[in-house]
Amino acid sequence: MGTADEMSNFVYRKRRATLRTVLVRISALILMIIIISSIVYLDRNGYSDSTDDRISLLDAIYFTVVSITTTGYGDITPVSTVARLIDTVFITLGRAAMWFVIVGTAYQFIFDRYREAYLMKAIQKSLSGHVIIAGYSDTGRSAAKELMAQGRKKKHIMVITIDKEEAQEAAESGYVSMIGDATREKDLEKAVISKASSIIITTSKDATNVLVALTARYLNPEIRIISKVMDLENAKLLEKSGVDVMIAPAVTSGNLMATATTQPNVVHLLEDMMTAGKGLFICERVVQSDEVGVLPKKLKGISMIGVARQGKVYTMGELDSLKLRKGDRLLCLKSK
Q1: CATH tag for 13-122 (out of 1.10.230.10, 1.10.287.70, 2.30.30.100, 3.40.50.1370)
Q2: What pLDDT score does 163 carry?
Q3: What is the pTM (predicted TM-score) of this model?
């Protein structure tokens, strides 16, 4: 198991259940003190106070607390048989309960911390074929949710961000999360980039995106890199840095807004198609061996909208005479 320092970059879920448990235990202990104090007060005549002969309710509470904490000043003592029986039974139970709360809670906090570290280390070792999301702003959150909608498990989604609040939010959402700089080799290595299938770069600075892409490509030449581009003038730099797919949010949103002025239902349909969790979505798959040499329109049970071949996408108008080849990827519509 890694040490606390080795795992310091990883973020764990806040132990709300543990804090709730502590509050319940403390409340139960206070209730027990009240009950025992009440029993002592009801039998106050069986106790002797060195300062005076009267045992008040406050004296009963004081006697209970100093007894169960094993302080025992001896200024109030049980003198009757009943009082000593109360001290033997109830005070002993109260003392055991108090130590259970103190020792048990301290142990639980320490145990939980190392348990979380152990689990995170185990997850880190088991990561393979996972997706790394660099940055967890609105774009990163949306990407993570869509990956989930497409069937990815949360433990196969790694979020890396320099923002502590974003990292904590990702951890609370159930993703593997760490505080780190994705432009640094050391941090990407902790994210097991060598075994990752893809990295989604969502920072708001193209210069940072270029550095992340260069570092990711250096550490894993086979990884698929998807990056946000803020300024289209930087698209060539991102392409040269090894980015496979670039998304320009400003351009895409502008196009959708313009379309919505005359064709709002088209925009709704496109949003539906781009979201796996909704009724209609676009899927992509490799051509099967028995489909090689076949015209796309001859395939049954598939709503074809395009074919991807060697980096070029052939749309519906170009599919009439395009015979499928090995390695082609089919783009088709599916319903949820």
Answers
A1: 1.10.287.70
A2: 92
A3: 0.64
